[in-house]
Design goal:
The chain is of the alpha+beta class and 278 residues long. Helix content is 14%, strand content 35%. It is globular, with a radius of gyration of 18 Å.
Length: 278
């Protein structure tokens, strides 16, 4: 199943995709409430003129660093080596759910940055939450998957990281996190072979597969849920796939560029980069 949040003129509604057609799911509530309710089957009806929004406003955003290839590429540009702790701990930082925008939305370029970068990520959406979830049972906690474009202000990031607090303002502005175009249930995607691809203005910049992840979503869920309850509608990001950012390639986005992130089984998340704010 492919679930979406859409607007056809009456406000956000939960729907499903039948090919490219949007069907209303017959649920009076947002996507997080829908997931928490167990994705109840309602009276589906076709919707005309539907515009896709971000599939959900997450309860929380946690972003990991699961792809060794991305770290090797990015750290080489920064003159750093991968710390040995990375191989042992699925470390993460927390993003701001209220910054989320969706497919076809313009990504704002904040006035205080000269270097914006995209980041191609696979994101798991928690369905059946819990506490102290063992890795062997973690797959059952995943409702589905979506694409996450974790935008970064690289020049600001370079100033923040030496402090040791992790990314802060470099990740935080209205529109800095893009999710979509839909949430697919686990049966719709093969994590062993799904192709993850970045295109900028139609040119392929990078390609990878979830099979390259060093830390699995099961390991992430086990780690995060230690002594802490996970709830439906929380989002865990894989971190950037190898070749999934301009930083790795020494290439920069420009205002007006169209970024397309595609993952087999999910679809294409497409956004235009806006002009720098005055």
């Amino acid at each position: 199943m492919r679930y979406v949040t859409y607007d056809a003129g009456a406000g956000p509604r939960v729907g499903t995709l039948d090919g490219d057609a949007v069907l209303d799911a017959g649920f009076d509530g947002d996507m997080v409430a829908f997931i928490a309710a167990g994705a109840p089957a309602g009276d589906a009806r076709p919707v005309a003129g539907a515009r896709l929004l971000a599939p959900l406003r997450p309860r929380s955003l946690r972003d990991f660093l699961a792809f060794e290839g991305h770290l090797e590429n990015a750290y080489a540009r920064l003159g750093r080596e991968i710390p040995p702790e990375w191989y042992e701990v699925p470390a993460y930082y927390k993003g701001m759910p209220d910054t989320v925008i969706g497919p076809e939305d313009e990504v704002p370029w904040p006035a205080w940055s000269d270097f914006l970068d995209h980041e191609l990520e696979l994101a798991a959406v928690i369905g059946r939450g819990g506490r102290d979830i063992p890795a062997a049972e973690a797959d059952a906690a995943i409702f589905g998957y979506t694409i996450w474009n974790d935008m970064s202000a690289r020049d600001v990031q370079a100033r923040e990281l030496p402090v040791g607090m992790g990314p802060g303002k470099a990740k935080d502005w209205d529109g800095s996190n893009v999710l979509g175009p839909c949430i697919v249930t686990p049966d719709e995607i093969d994590l062993a072979s799904a192709r993850m691809q970045v295109r900028v203005n139609g040119e392929r910049w990078g390609e990878d597969t979830p099979a390259s992840m060093h830390h699995t979503f099961a390991a992430m869920i086990e780690y995060v849920s230690r002594s802490q309850t996970l709830f439906a509608g929380e989002v865990l990001g894989s971190g950037t796939a190898a070749g999934g950012s301009g930083l790795e390639l020494d290439r920069r986005l420009r205002p007006g560029d169209v970024v397309e992130l595609e993952i087999d089984g999910i679809g294409v998340l497409r956004n235009r980069i806006g002009r720098k704010e005055a």
